[in-house]
Amino acid sequence: MTSDPAQPFRTEGEPSGRAFRIGLLGHGTVGGALAELLPSRADHIAAITGIRPEITGVHTRSNGTTAAEVIAGADLVAELIGGLEPARTYVLEAMAAGKHVVTANKQLLAHHGEELWAAAREHGVQLRFEAAVAGVVPVIRVLQESLSGAHIDRVTGIVNGTTNFILTRMAETGATYADALQEAQQLGYAEADPTDDVNGKDAAAKMAILARLAFDTPVHITDVAYEGIEHLTGDDMAYAKDLDLGLKLIGTAERVEGGIAVRVHPAFLYRGHPLASVNGPYNAVTVESEAITEITMSGPGAGGPQTASAVMGDIISAMIPPASTPETTQSLAVVKDVESAFYVHLEVADRPGVLAQVAQVLGLQGASVKSVVQKGLGENARLVMVVHPLLESKMLAAVELIAGLDFVRGRPRVIRVIEEQFV
Ligand SMILES: NC(=O)C1=CN([C@@H]2O[C@H](COP(=O)(O)OP(=O)(O)OC[C@H]3O[C@@H](n4cnc5c(N)ncnc54)[C@H](OP(=O)(O)O)[C@@H]3O)[C@@H](O)[C@H]2O)C=CC1
Ligand SMILES: N[C@@H](CC=O)C(=O)O
């Protein structure tokens, strides 16, 4: 039986509700959790909506049921496979067949979002994706509905649970990077291949989706500059403590002169920053706009049951009246070179004039030093400083010059510092 959006609510004497058939593509961490959660909530959902969701088919690579069979037997398809193909093809086939789609797949949307949203509009079906960004935190709904009329200036977030979990473990328990990553995998936070988590690409995809909704302009993953946490060391954490900084993987999407800028990178935050206390697998997204000043939403950003609960919310929304993602109306340029403050970590031979020479090179690029910590003596000293905001290109030029100074040992490490900047 197919759903009738014109008759969504329960009528007296119809306690069990009409059936709404869910086809599941993927039965791993999230798909498996949804298959447990949905039946346990079906009575309640039927009581409040008059419609009873039922899983009528499951497709994986190994279970013998084809995706075509699952799609044919469903009113709504939940795509929980991940990756670009065959997920894209299945989603397009489902929508062409008039089926609503719910997906948690951020890479799919960051690569092919405009094509998929256009297909949803063309076929008059819903394509919902709350679980694709920040797990169970309802940031997509807030941007699409509550803030759809707002002029948003900036979206800042911790949008990857795995890396936030790793950084929290390293800072709080002194765990090694490798051990913390392994734990995140065991807890179901990481992607099937965790490379995209730790290199920043998972967060970049999520920021592309948020930027698209916040600024009403197409944003592709290739528009997002990203770097990950693989190169961070326990040493960086230790110095950060001395400078009263916390280390996070931060995504930023903001209006800048000439367009928008979207990026993901590790950043030090001063302790009072709203994102500094977001720990473990939690995510948080701050939206800034002159009219609303600033709101921050936070909650579990990864994990099977948590993500399945966001998928279930989308399923319930799709069972009731229609919603669509409209075409963008803007075509904003994406600017890559923007200003930031930086933490600079140098291994130096401690001789008279070292700090003055480093400061001089920074000064030539327009950088001024905000704070400095020096540890150790002789050939193995460490010089760690925070510099005030300057263009990233200028900072990179300064780093190249500093790396060439004869007293500098090894490669300087440079990490952005996010300063208070709320409107
Ligand atoms: N885990 C999390 O915390 C979160 C995950 N997500 C997203 O949810 C989606 C699913 O993630 P998750 O459940 O963790 O992934 P898993 O790797 O745990 O599960 C993937 C499922 O898809 C099946 N599958 C994989 N490749 C194919 C294929 N080519 N054809 C058919 N089925 C396939 C797998 O079964 P088999 O190998 O037997 O084919 C498995 O059942 C991803 O897009 C992910 O980014 C979003 C938010 C949080
Ligand atoms: N691997 C992702 C899962 C949710 O999107 C993460 O760690 O955030």
From TrEMBL:
<dbReference type="Pfam" id="PF03447">
    <property type="entry name" value="NAD_binding_3"/>
</dbReference>
<comment type="similarity">
    <text>Belongs to the homoserine dehydrogenase family.</text>
</comment>
<dbReference type="InterPro" id="IPR005106">
    <property type="entry name" value="Asp/hSer_DH_NAD-bd"/>
</dbReference>
<dbReference type="InterPro" id="IPR016204">
    <property type="entry name" value="HDH"/>
</dbReference>
<comment type="pathway">
    <text>Amino-acid biosynthesis; L-threonine biosynthesis; L-threonine from L-aspartate: step 3/5.</text>
</comment>
<keyword id="KW-0791">Threonine biosynthesis</keyword>
<dbReference type="InterPro" id="IPR001342">
    <property type="entry name" value="HDH_cat"/>
</dbReference>
<dbReference type="InterPro" id="IPR045865">
    <property type="entry name" value="ACT-like_dom_sf"/>
</dbReference>
<dbReference type="Pfam" id="PF00742">
    <property type="entry name" value="Homoserine_dh"/>
</dbReference>
<dbReference type="InterPro" id="IPR002912">
    <property type="entry name" value="ACT_dom"/>
</dbReference>
<comment type="function">
    <text>Catalyzes the conversion of L-aspartate-beta-semialdehyde (L-Asa) to L-homoserine (L-Hse), the third step in the biosynthesis of threonine and methionine from aspartate.</text>
</comment>
<dbReference type="InterPro" id="IPR019811">
    <property type="entry name" value="HDH_CS"/>
</dbReference>
<keyword id="KW-0521">NADP</keyword>
<comment type="pathway">
    <text>Amino-acid biosynthesis; L-methionine biosynthesis via de novo pathway; L-homoserine from L-aspartate: step 3/3.</text>
</comment>
<feature type="domain" description="ACT">
    <location>
        <begin position="343"/>
        <end position="416"/>
    </location>
</feature>
<keyword id="KW-0028">Amino-acid biosynthesis</keyword>
<keyword id="KW-0486">Methionine biosynthesis</keyword>
<protein>
    <recommendedName>
        <fullName>Homoserine dehydrogenase</fullName>
        <ecNumber>1.1.1.3</ecNumber>
    </recommendedName>
</protein>
<keyword id="KW-0560">Oxidoreductase</keyword>
<dbReference type="InterPro" id="IPR036291">
    <property type="entry name" value="NAD(P)-bd_dom_sf"/>
</dbReference>
